[in-house]
């Protein structure tokens, strides 16, 4: 069995809303193994995005631990966390987050350039071909459809060859057919490049594409809520 590459223990994150505290996460234990494709499913406000942000080092917990590839994120300073995010994790967001003034190819290589890394043009060409956006490389994001922009965002997440991909509602702005197509591509690419992929969604049908489904409610993973998609 593949080793555990992501592990959270008793993870808590509270937010103050007026005079009351909102328990975004209230003691979450979660793990994902190398090369596993996991869906985290739950209603809006259940804590899914908070969990993903903590796993990716975009936020810090109030208590509990996040261990990624054997390293406790709490042991890193801000600079180390930034390097960790650029080299270890690829992020895919619901709103694409493409830079409007850069063409698609420039958007895809931007994080790698920012990190001073080597641009593997052959690899970039390969993933753009798989995602069927090779013909769009010189276009600006505004010239692409929503589905094409999301494919470009996926290519950007893959470009630095991270071992982990974290996707936050990656089909949220897409129609059903395009959403399923994008999810199918994500699964194909995660297997092809042997990456661990964690996606969050509120869509049961989308979640079924993953290898395993974890359910979260009111800031807690549901006991016995893990299931293996068929």
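Q: What amino acid sequence fits the structure above?
A:
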């Amino acid at each position: 069995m593949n080793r555990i590459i992501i592990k959270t223990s008793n993870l808590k994150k509270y937010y103050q809303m007026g005079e009351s505290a909102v328990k975004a996460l209230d003691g979450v234990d979660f793990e994902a193994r190398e090369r596993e494709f996991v869906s985290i499913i739950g209603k809006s406000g259940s804590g899914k995005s908070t969990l993903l942000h903590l796993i990716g080092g975009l936020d810090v917990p109030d208590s509990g631990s996040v261990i990624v590839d054997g390293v406790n994120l709490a042991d890193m300073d801000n600079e180390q966390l930034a390097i960790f995010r650029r080299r270890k994790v690829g992020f895919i967001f619901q709103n694409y987050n493409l830079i409007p003034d850069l063409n698609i190819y420039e958007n895809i290589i931007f994080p790698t350039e920012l990190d001073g890394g080597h641009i593997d043009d052959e690899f970039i060409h390969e993933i753009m071909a798989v995602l069927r956006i090779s013909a769009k490389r010189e276009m600006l994001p505004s010239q692409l459809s929503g589905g094409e922009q999301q494919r470009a965002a996926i290519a950007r997440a893959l470009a630095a060859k991270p071992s982990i991909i974290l996707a936050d509602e990656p089909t949220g702005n897409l129609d059903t057919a395009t959403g399923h197509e994008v999810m199918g591509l994500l699964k194909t690419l995660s297997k092809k490049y042997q990456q661990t992929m964690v996606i969050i969604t509120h869509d049961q049908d989308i979640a079924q594409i993953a290898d395993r489904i974890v359910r979260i409610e009111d800031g807690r993973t549901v006991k016995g809520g893990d299931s293996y998609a068929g």
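Q: And what stands out in the fold?
A: The first strand starts at residue 4 and ends at 17.
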